[in-house]
Predict the 3D structure of the following.
Amino acid sequence: MLFNSFEFCIFLPVIFALYWFVFNKSYKIQNLLILGASYFFYGWFDWRFVSLLILSTIIDYSFGFFVANGTPKRKKIYLWLSIANNLIILGFFKYYNFFTLEFTHALDHLGVHLHPYLINIALPLGISFYTFHGMSYVIDIYRGNFKPIKSFVDYAVFVCFFPLLVAGPIERAGHLLPQITTPRHFNYTRAVQGLRLMLWGFVKKIAIADSLAPIVDDIFKNYTSYSGSTLVLGAIYFSFQIYGDFSGYSDIAIGTAKLFGFELLTNFRFPFASKSTSEFWRRWHISLSTWFNDYIFNPTVTHLRDWNKKAIVTGIMLTFFLSGFWHGAGWKFIIFGLVYGISISFEFYTKKFRKKAFKIFPQWLNESISQLLTFAFVTWAFIIFRAPTFQDSIKYTRGMTHRLFEQPHFRSFLFIYILPFIAIDWFFRKDERNLQFPKNKILRYATYIIMFFVIVYYSNDNASFIYFQF
């Protein structure tokens, strides 16, 4: 079920009413309602994969007890069995065809010709997200951060709470489970903030991202026919399309959770204001970045037993290699991750030099130049992400240098969609979880009405979210 669908407009009020007005006497019954609603929400996409979600949940729930109650040696065995189980599930559905084809191509070069069996089945939605939930839960129990939860229903809600099930944020058990296992009381202020977040998220998704999508699709599909100026514009458009799409989803998810008394992790903090690529990843898809930092980067550097530059760079490159591969089964995603790994490693090695070099400029100019250069780099990296193949991204980049000063196509859209988006997003940058609308009642409700009609005007019931494919 899509957030931006007619079905969700019916689903959400019904579950909200049952949650607060029928089952409000017991948080355990509320949790059971949320669990059933989450399976229904997920099953609306494809009921076949609900059983996979339940099976994955049962296995990680069980391994939590095995890890907690085992001997030190067995704890480690159970931990790796749990990780292996999640990686096998994720690898089979998401990476089987990729590895099979790459292995077959390698054998072709050696003169061995095979006809591999490929699976022809849709990637289960949210599989990368809920498997990461399960892994972090068991790992944190192994680390002694908390004890396994006794109620299967409560644990299952943590894994598949419907606002975050298919595209995050990637929650941590230590953050969400205490909220699940305690009574909730309706909070009017929180609910209003949730509705405001949802409203702004729908504007970002429907009015910004979905309006830019056909333009971006056309430019990337026919990039050999357009001038360099149009290709530059297409790259900028995609940066704002994916930001509007994914941050819009996160806003809707966080806002929806607020309606039910839950606070999800923040996922974006005005990333295009970043002054470096490392800062960009601290502001973009924060729940994924911190997940990789806690479970890949820190253990890697710690295992190397010396926090020197080589160990840190090794950790950075491994983290971004896996982060890139997480985004998709293809070489372009791996290269996308490695490009950021190289960039952040370069920043790490040149930090002192850059501080000295930029001292000759005023601070405001330093920050402006850094923001501009970072945005340019991020926009170029997104070309690798968006292009059909890495080879296409190279050709697209080359094309940006030809006829660069020719009048671009779609020029007016820059002002219609992007500039107001930047202005409003900048206004909300201080606290994206507590959006400040006009205090004057008339102006405030006028703003609500305008945003609502913008959403209705640009509404497209078939427009999915970009990160659903991951």
About this structure: The mean pLDDT is 87. The chain has 18 helices and no strands. The two ends are 16 Å apart (CA to CA).
